[in-house]
Amino acid sequence: MATLREIQRRIKSVKNTQQITKAMKMVSAAKLRRAQENIVAARPYADKVKDLVAALEEGTMPENHKLLSKGSDKPAKKAELILLTSDRGLCGGFNSYLIRMVERFMREHPELDCTVSIVGRRALDHFKGRSEVTGRRHFGSGRPDFNLAEEIAGDAVASYLEDSSDEVYLVYSTFQSALTQTPVIQKLLPIIPDNSEKEALDSFLFEPSPEAVLDVLLPKYVEVQVFRALLESSASEHGARMTAMDSASKNASEMIGGLTLIYNRARQAAITKELLEIISGAEALKDS
């Protein structure tokens, strides 16, 4: 049985851990507010670019735009998965869900030769030596920079146009709330316009032509979608870490309560033992 001093040390250790988890929760909550504001501001722009691409695509020949179609009648053989994870841990199942989604995609598509381009140290540690990693980048702890999105999108487009990949997918978590983050796989290339909610552009005049505008817009569309995924992932990471640290703080409180109860019982038993020894000693002196 643990001594009173050992139990006190354990209580002190758990209290110190609880102070750390509470501090991390507060930091994540502050970062989450900023990240949530960023993604809420970015979503309308990303959706509008998507609508514009869908509207311009109608009436044009997809085969004239390599990012829209590249041998669409041929089955894909090579796929690149761009996986967005965090640089740091202590965020619950945030990273593990995304990693498992990539591994499940590979199992379900044995016909594809899959490579992984990784953003975030956590996924790099996992896939090192397991799969072919074509890109390595750090996510960073601050607001995602659009330059990072341009780099990722530029490499993806170059890989696609050079036939290093037939399909490119984004794997990231969409932010719903601090308690809910949903891992998704989004096809990035070839671009498949969503015509379900497109706006009619008959009243607009495009110069020099809709096709020329589309040629300029498609690479920008890829950059915007990557940047949106980075912002979604950043907000999801902070939400997951805040929730995980809140749960850890509550668990620490329960552990402190349990250890305190054990300490009080052990202390009471020690006091009772000492009293019995004193009484026994006094009785022995009385008898002598």
Q: How does this structure look, described?
A:
With 288 residues, the chain is an alpha/beta fold. The protein has one domain (22-243): ATP synthase, F1 complex, gamma subunit (Pyruvate Kinase, Chain: A, domain 1). The protein has 5 helices and 5 strands; from the N terminus they run H-E-H-E-H-E-H-E-E-H. The chain has helices at 4-57, 94-108, 121-127, 146-161, 210-287; strands spanning 78-84, 113-119, 133-137, 167-175, 181-189. The protein has a 5-stranded mixed beta sheet, with helices on both faces. Strand 2 (113-119), helix 3 (121-127) and strand 3 form a beta-alpha-beta unit. Helix 1 packs antiparallel against helix 5 (210-287) and helix 4 packs across helix 5. The two termini are 36 Å apart. The mean pLDDT is 84.
Which features would summarize this protein structure in a list?
Pyruvate Kinase, Chain: A, domain 1; 288 residues; 5 helices; 59% helix; five-stranded mixed sheet
Number of beta-strand segments: 5
User: What's the CATH architecture name?
Assistant: 3-Layer(aba) Sandwich
Hey, roughly how much beta strand do the residues contain? Answer: 5-15%
User: What does the largest sheet look like?
Assistant: 5 strands, mixed
Main sheet strand line-up: 3-2-1-4-5
Distance between the termini: 36 Å
Q: Which value, in Å, is the CA radius of gyration?
A: 29 Å
Count up the helices. Answer: 5
Shape: elongated
Number of domains: 1
Order of helices and strands: HEHEHEHEEH
CATH superfamily, please? Answer: ATP synthase, F1 complex, gamma subunit
CATH topology: Pyruvate Kinase, Chain: A, domain 1
The first-level CATH class is given as Alpha Beta
